[in-house]
Amino acid sequence: MKSFLEIIEDQLVANRLPLAGVTIAATPYANTPVVLNLHWHAFVEVKLAGEGNAVAHQPVPSSALQVNSLWERFQDLENDALESAWELGAWDLARIEARPCGRTAAALQERIECMTAFGAAPHEIDGEPVVVSDVPDAGELIDVAARVGYVCWQFRPVWCGLWRDVARDDSLERGGYRNPKCPVVGESYMPGRARTVVYQLGRTPLAAGASSA
Questions:
Q1: For residue 94, what pLDDT is reported?
Q2: Collapsed DSSP state (helix, strand, coil) of residue 80
Q3: How far apart are CA 168 and CA 135, in angstroms?
């Protein structure tokens, strides 16, 4: 099976657009599909006629892809996410642990965030979808996440990304990438709680490890 990094690189080659961010969403059950969300930094012109001038610009929709890889340990997914963020030059990787959005008194925003994480964003911009989704099991994944919670990993790539020209990071090679292997080790995960863990990847004179909030 391909790693997250290999899938992201394939999409970069196919789309030829800079990335603003990457989100990876998973439920806590082994061997269930994982959803990879790629957030592009680009706009398309809106015209009233085929040959007319552009009257507006709309952001290119994010891409949501279902990854059907086999995995038995949560740490395997985390290490894959860490390695992807590391080699793509991200300053850090945030692991967002979400509580079940189907619990009593859960806010509507939690449901929306869950649906979006698994490729089923319920909103549009000017009548256009904000996500182009290829996630056939989105409904089932959302139902599981609503019962037991889920995890999202988020990072902003420097290599082939929006942040390439503003990155100030001593750990980056020329071009904004890093060589393998990621030296940061992930933490354990306990489903059902709300927590954010931030893994520091970039290096400055004040470099640090992981911190919890």
A1: 98
A2: helix
A3: 35
Radius of gyration of the chain (CA): 18
Mean pLDDT taken over the chain: 87
Q: Note whether 12 and 19 are within 8 A (CB).
A: yes
- Asked if the model's pLDDT at residue 55 lies above 90, the reply is no
Handedness of CA 80, 82, 86, 91 (dihedral sign): positive
- The total domain count for the chain is 1
Boundaries of domain holding 180: 4-212
Name residue 56's beta-bridge partners.
Answer: 46
Q: For residues 154 and 61, what is the distance between their CA atoms, to the nearest angstrom? A: 17
Whether 181 and 83 have beta carbons less than 8 Å apart is answered as yes
Concatenate the DSSP letters of all residues of 169-208 into one string: -TTPPTTS---S-----PPP--TT--EEEEEE-S--TT--
Q: Is 200 exposed, middle or buried (0-12, 13-18, 19+ CB in 10 A)?
A: middle
Q: Provide the Cα torsion 200, 204, 208, 211; round to 10°.
A: -40
Greater model confidence, 206 or 192: 192
Q: Report the distance separating Cα 177 and Cα 139, nearest Å.
A: 35
CA–centroid distance for 93 within its chain = 10
Tokens of 29: 């059950």
Least confident of 35-39, 76-80, 97-101, 172-176: 172-176
Phi, psi of 133 (to 5 degrees): -110, 135
Kindly state the percentage of the chain with pLDDT values over 70. 83
